[in-house]
């Protein structure tokens, strides 16, 4: 089945396809490659087939169908679900069964989606590598922390999946696994019922093999939620409408020379030289303000200070069940004072204000999604630096599988847009893809 999600929904709606058949095809694919990829933490095949039959029954009865009616979706194992375990990637919560759903789970079900199961997450969505391998080459990491979601979509197990990003945990795995990945503007999607590691940096995101499908997924989970302090009570952009819209004029891109550019691999540099040449006069190159050099440390202070307190119970009562990676990280995170934390928040706010007028002149920043191809598994989950600034400022970020490296592994192209203009970012991304096709 090579159709996209929107075509599948249309076929399920007119009866030419059943959700049961679609789900069964996903389960067959999972049975074939899951022993090598290890993308799934929890999967109940009988339960998801029953859910698919229920969606088909709704359609046969002539009742309303949802925007994702009968479509399988994978969920990173940090989202609470009342009908399957949620372990947060930790042995501490091996038998944890939430009583309620995360807000986005309810929104997916309202849209008619089939929750296929829980995909593997790194421990507490942090740095300790999980068991998942890269579908392109099992010797390489799929990235972290949304490793299972990205790998499952790349392997064809599911067409859509949810993940999260506090630094680079959506964009980097999308790049390494060669799929589309999107982190919406902060506040667009509720985080209620999702593992909290940083109140200022946590974001919900998604994965797909089709850009328009990713827009549809995010439209379905977006919305106001008073339970999330970052959520806002105002109209939201329609990402799918943005994706389907034609650009009024040729988009203006900007490449920002940042201090961490020296970390880019040779094949990343070469690939972006070709990309920027193909975009020609639509790209302006600018130097980053000197103040930007401090932003990675600002991100680290905020992240460390907040995760240390969010995991207070686990740190104090279950220290022996934390990985050595987490134990060392918690010890290091304790060093920051409240004054340093408050100063970091002030610098973050100043960076946010800097970006507000910046996007008056540009449609999107173009930059690598990661510094290079997926590293070998023993080398860790990869450097998230290409995502740090944009996550810190809550800007919408999109990774597109457009390049490949010397080892024939994917390298993503990342577009960053103005906050709360996520629809404009999808419109620009679609233009970019079409433009590159015409160039070749």
Would you mind describing this structure in some detail?
This protein has 440 residues and is of the alpha/beta class. The protein has a single domain (1-440), classed as Amidase signature (AS) domain (Amidase signature (AS) enzymes, Alpha-Beta Complex), CATH 3.90.1300.10. It contains 15 helices and 11 strands. It has an 11-stranded mixed sheet, with helices on both faces. Helix 4 (103-110) links the parallel strand 2 (72-76) and strand 3 (114-119). It is globular and about 60 Å long.
Key features?
40% helix; eleven-stranded mixed β-sheet; 11 strands; 15 helices; Amidase signature (AS) enzymes; 440 residues; alpha/beta
Low-confidence stretches: none
Number of strands: 11
Give the name of the CATH architecture.
Alpha-Beta Complex
Q: Which structural class matches the secondary elements?
A: alpha/beta
Quick check: average pLDDT? 97
Rg calculated over all Cα atoms: 21 Å
The CATH H-level homologous superfamily: Amidase signature (AS) domain
Query: Strands of the biggest beta sheet: in what spatial order?
Result: 1-3-2-4-6-5-10-11-9-7-8
Largest sheet: 11 strands, mixed
Terminal Cα span: 27 Å
CATH topology: Amidase signature (AS) enzymes
> Which CATH top level class fits?
Alpha Beta
